[in-house]
Amino acid sequence: LDMPVYNIMIINNAGALVYTYTDQSRLLTSANELEKTYSYPLEPVIEVQDSRCCVVFGEADGVRIGHCVLAVNGTNVQAGRPTLLENGQEVMSVLANPASYPVSIKFGKLKLTANERINLAGMFHSIYAITAKLSPVAGSSGLQLLETDAYRLHCLQTVTGVKILVITDPKQANVNQVLKRIYEIYADYALKNPFFTMQGMNINFTLFEEAVQSMLRHLDKFGNLTNLAP
């Protein structure tokens, strides 16, 4: 079985991101990259967003809104500055120049920066509260499941307001087992640690990380957490 869990995030009751796990081997493989050759004018609309060149309009042939430019004419973007190519040229300047065409563009997903992960965690914390207030059912919780054709986002909020987010493959079953197990690991290796405080302290404990990795290996092998040792 392939690893079915893409991301794990733990957000404290104040909306701060205190733990994150990302399986980059699934997110940044060549299967998730797409290279197309275009004539002038460029069909998809590309703009700079969050310090990267992203498609904002004009989905076609597998290129989707949110895809980022990874390379132009075989030259990759810089790792720390994805608006620039490795040869020093600006991506947007090359794409705006008719002399650059026909142009080959590689699209894909760039790794989120630490600041982007923190901002997204805060945004989800707010969205969760908004969805709880919008619910017509009294006492309803906030957003628990977000489904797309590419992934599912699952959320478990604990009694203390801590949110556990798990992003999985759409076909992955037994996610409730995963959420429950992460909560148990959080309770055993974070809350019971005398050096841990809930007010914005990151979870950076060896035993916690080892327990999460053990859970993921078991899930990868068997597809569920049945018979997983505590």
TrEMBL record:
Pfam families: Sybindin. It is found in: Endoplasmic reticulum; Golgi apparatus, cis-Golgi network; Golgi apparatus. Keywords: Endoplasmic reticulum, ER-Golgi transport, Golgi apparatus, Transport. Signal peptide: none annotated. One of its GO terms (cellular component) is endoplasmic reticulum. SUPFAM superfamilies: SNARE-like (SSF64356). GO terms for biological process: endoplasmic reticulum to Golgi vesicle-mediated transport. The keyword Transport applies. CDD domains: TRAPPC4_synbindin. It comes from the Eukaryota. The keyword Transport applies. Core component of the TRAPP complexes which has a function of guanine nucleotide exchange factor activity for Rab1 GTPase. Plays a role in vesicular transport from endoplasmic reticulum to Golgi and autophagy. May play a role in dendrite postsynaptic membrane trafficking. PANTHER family: TRAFFICKING PROTEIN PARTICLE COMPLEX SUBUNIT (PTHR23249), TRAFFICKING PROTEIN PARTICLE COMPLEX SUBUNIT 4 (PTHR23249:SF15). Component of the multisubunit TRAPP (transport protein particle) complex, which includes at least TRAPPC2, TRAPPC2L, TRAPPC3, TRAPPC3L, TRAPPC4, TRAPPC5, TRAPPC8, TRAPPC9, TRAPPC10, TRAPPC11 and TRAPPC12. Interacts with SDC2. Part of the multisubunit transport protein particle (TRAPP) complex. Belongs to the TRAPP small subunits family. TRAPPC4 subfamily. This is Trafficking protein particle complex subunit. It comes from Macrostomum lignano.
